[in-house]
């Protein structure tokens, strides 16, 4: 027997030891080769009479197994299978492939010999499923990073190697549901309390403990293979309590997912159907639901974007090659308002000495107070210690003197959106900066090329757009102006990675990528309002199509006064007639006549309570606009959903057409993290590629354009892509992929 990802030995007592150790990886994953090895050694254990039992462990100090290899799975994302077989033959082939690991683990579980696993660290997804198929589980109690869990639902999948069947049989349906539906992870102590593991031991002793148990239990069986086994808490069709749990879970899933996440619905079906039959039948049920879920566009999109692309960008995949990495010794933040204060905090939290500059020392100290409050909150909640908090605050120096900016590798300007003020700040900072230092402007709308005119070194000038609140938002948009150098872009990417955030790289344009595209959602909501659609319908459909808030609530959060200001500025820049625009006049009525500027004032489209939570839509919203549609039929919901999502995706396509963005990964991750584009779609590009197909999307955009106006008209780029049958990931692949294809 030749194994490629497992070590193998059999001791004098006939106890086999399989050591999981995928070559060249810091963490084990269930690659195709690993699954083949599990199949091979399972057959060996089952058929070799000299083997009396088996212990499985990991050769990696990082843990046992992080689950399925999503890189292998993601290579198929967006691609279809060639149906050279009949439909029945294809389904049979898919089932056999999907059931291979599931069937093997069941064979291991019923081989008639004891099987134990030593868990020294991480055991997630398929890793935990392998462990659950063993009769005995020993976990390390001295590894604070040890985690168990079935996180598949977070990327649009469901556990496909027995997780939906063994965990509910082990801990009960009620305890298992949140762990599987939400992908919650848990530590060794909780695992022991629930019965997921049977013993805790020091990392160095887990294998010995597992071997000792195997020797002492030659006739071990899984609990569900014992005569008279009963599921803890009962099963839904026999126990009123368990039935109520299943019913409530179904209602909760429907209310939270709006049917957009089929994995959760299929998980419930797996558990409900599977728990009522013997486990062998339950495992077959699980495989069928797994295959169905895996082939859905939601799973393909979420794996590609939320796992693969996110990982790549979080490691700097969009960083220009050939430039040395920058280590930041000192960074200055100019402007101690909400954004500047948040930026200073995340820099200090990353261990970077930070100078926080404002017009007065007092103002700068007020900015530092923001960090003090965050530190105090973390200490009070046990997330940090007073010593660590004090060390973080010590890294922030407050000042009103630009001489203190000297020696900074990077300056981040975070003052008001005013070109004259930003120009003045640029010149004052550059007067004391070294010639290689980078100047970054945190602006959300002002073109970087224009701001760079105030700089003596426009090649060192770049946009670094943070999102609020800075400490919670994981994305940073980096904007290159016309003269920004590749070396400056590389330094900006290094900076974003240093403060542990995800960078996307775009080119200059008014509103850049995120602000420009984000605005289409709120504006489409305004269009619907102007058409006389009841505000509650607009808001409910917005949430139900996958957006985090309704379009009107988003406008409140940004500020209706801000929306009015941006609308007027954009119209002026484009030479449009502001006075003749009904939408602009409606916003002006809300802000200037009614004083309803949004959440910050406690009143906008919504009325807000003292905690800033929306209590109700303002009853007089339609005082100036007649309500013509006050019921939402399924057809109307479908139409409004298409308008919301297609409108945003059209603007993304225009950004590609104009060269504002050049990598589909940046576009997808930016759309999800920056403005909350429906995560189940994988982002705007994946929404087009996987949910419509390029030709179908262009046809839908043309239909909407004919009905509602040119804002839906597909750009020339989309028509060319449709003619060639190209998706966004074909036309705008990762830079490395593009280079490899050209070679």
Description of the molecule:
The structure is a single chain. This protein has 743 residues and is an alpha/beta fold. The chain folds into three domains: 6-300, 2-enoyl-CoA Hydratase, Chain A, domain 1 (Alpha-Beta Complex), CATH 3.90.226; 331-508, Rossmann fold; 515-731, N-(1-d-carboxylethyl)-l-norvaline Dehydrogenase, domain 2, CATH 1.10.1040.50. Helices cover 49% and strands 11% of the residues. The chain is built from 30 helices and 20 strands. The chain starts with 5 loop residues before the first strand and ends with a helix. The model is unreliable at 76-83 and 737-743 (pLDDT under 50).
CATH class of the largest domain: Alpha Beta
| Strand residue content | 5-15%
CATH 2nd-level architecture of the largest domain: Alpha-Beta Complex
Largest sheet: number of strands, sense, barrel closure: 8 strands, mixed
Q: What is the end-to-end distance?
A: 39 Å
The spatial strand order of the largest sheet comes to 13-12-11-14-15-16-17-18
- The CATH topology of the largest domain comes to 2-enoyl-CoA Hydratase, Chain A, domain 1
Shape: globular
Helix fraction, binned, reads 40-55%
Low-confidence stretches: 76-83, 737-743
- Average pLDDT value? 91
Look at the helices and sheets and give the structural class: alpha/beta
What is the CATH homology-level superfamily of the largest domain?
A: 2-enoyl-CoA Hydratase, Chain A, domain 1
Counting DSSP E segments of at least 2 residues, the number of strands comes to 20
Cα radius of gyration in angstroms: 29 Å
- Helical stretch tally: 30
As for the number of domains, it is 3
